[in-house]
Amino acid sequence: MSKRDDLIVKYAADIKDKFGETPNMDLLTKVAIGLGPAIYNLDASKVSGSDDKELQTVKNNFLIKKLGLADSSDLMDAINSVIDKYGRSDKNKHRAVIYYMLAKHFGKESIYN
After folding, report:
1. What is the mean pLDDT of the chain?
2. Residue 84 is inside which H or E element, if any?
3. Sign, Cα dihedral of 7, 11, 14, 16
4. Where are the domains positioned within the chain?
5. What is the pLDDT of residues 70-113, one digit of tens each?
6. Distance from CA of residue 112 to its chain's centroid?
7. Which CATH architecture has domain 3-112?
8. What is the DSSP letter of 91?
9. 107 three-state secondary structure
10. Nearest to 29 by CA among 86, 110, 100
11. What is the Cβ-side half-sphere exposure of residue 57, based on CA atoms within 13 angstroms?
12. What InterPro entries does this protein's entry cite (predicted)?
């Protein structure tokens, strides 16, 4: 198994354990591939739920630029909802899992097709 495959298995376990959902492995794989080399970088592969600048980056770079959503308060509400479900105190919030959950939340899975 490749390192990417190992990471995707870890992300799938997080989705199952933290969110109580069976992940769509095809979508999860595409989200991980879309993140490119960031998934291998310890800092870039994680999202800090307590860093407002980091959450703004998720909003601007992923929700607005990648998913094409219009800027609104709903975006930060969705990010905070995912962070809360993941566990705000959990220091290992994987970016791929957050992006996967947000894509599903907004019904934007087709972006990865």
Report:
1. 95
2. helix 73-86
3. negative
4. 3-112
5. 999 999 999 999 999 999 888 889 999 999 999 999 999 999 98
6. 13
7. Orthogonal Bundle (1.10)
8. S
9. coil
10. 100
11. 12
12. DUF2853, Jann4075-like_sf
